[in-house]
């Protein structure tokens, strides 16, 4: 599904964080948003998620964003799993809330846990899983809901380098064909994952590592 952001302006109180910002993301495109700390990367995702008021327009698959919707899934660094529910029951929960029948939601949850490499861990509680595995559960939970757009806010910021590298591989694989906006500080991650990298604050769209690095450090 395509995502169009037109003349987006967002502020908190009297300070304007994003001003007249526009971005088009084509169906299935993976766009990385980079930029210096405080430039408004998270704010952009929150606006697309419908969590903050904004001026301008945001449309997903032709529908105007007016508030939160499960069509636009937001993934954070914090996995947000419920500690008392097993991995499979965490993945199933939003499906249950959507009214997906029990057998169908179990099948869908198991399928996604398999796709993120967690076969055999379905009945583990979050505290029995590593940080990377909990992020995999979060990814399965998000994708099982079949969102039109996936919004990821520094999802791997807390992971060690090796786990992060394996999550980057996984994301490339499972989000192939899914419209994605991915925020990161990490220039290598931006260049590795993005079909396109948007550097917020400069309005530039760049693929070259040195150009992005210069813009992020500016
Ligand atoms: N709820 C809020 N109330 C007031 N100001 C806020 C709020 N959230 C963010 N800000 C301010 O808006 C600006 C942009 O914040 P935002 O989190 O979008 O930046 P960011 O680019 O994601 O930063 P970082 O890379 O450090 O996470 C910052 O100056 C921040 O202090």
Automatic annotation (TrEMBL):
SMART domains in UniProt: AAA (SM00382)
Pfam families in the cross-refs: ABC_tran
Keywords: ATP-binding, Nucleotide-binding, Transport
GO molecular function, one term: ATP binding
CDD domains: ABC_NrtD_SsuB_transporters
Keyword Aminoacyl-tRNA synthetase tagged: no
Domain of life: Bacteria
Annotated ranges, domain ABC transporter: 3-218
PANTHER family: ALIPHATIC SULFONATES IMPORT ATP-BINDING PROTEIN SSUB, TAURINE IMPORT ATP-BINDING PROTEIN-RELATED
Protein name, entry field: Nitrate ABC transporter, ATP-binding protein
Organism: Lentzea cavernae
Taxonomy of the source species: Bacteria, Bacillati, Actinomycetota, Actinomycetes, Pseudonocardiales
